[in-house]
Amino acid sequence: MLGAFKLFLVWLLDQGLSRKTLRTHRDHLDALGGELIRRINVDPKLRKRSIMSVLMETLGEDGGPLIYPRKTELEQRSFDSTCRKLHRFLLDSKRKHSVRWKLLTPRRMRHRQRCVQ
Predict the structure, then answer these.
(1) What is the pLDDT of residue 8?
(2) How many domains does the chain divide into?
């Protein structure tokens, strides 16, 4: 899960978004990760599945899960926007690269940073 989130955040960095927007997306990914962990702890059957399948099942074209504790409608819509973006990113990267999901290890991250500089 963290590997996919890191790749998504690196992709967002490449989009040239403002710092505030990047922080908002990062915070929403944190909430999404917490919700995924909560679901896995509540439903033991999910522990046998890959985290990517649970993530893709949680996300959708219409957004993500409801945020707990309950937030305002505006905050939920903002969270859903990040989830839709992540969903599109995951689908596009699967189609474009047709590779298995690999975790972005610190070594790969350092290599990526060297290539960008």
Answers:
(1) 92
(2) 1
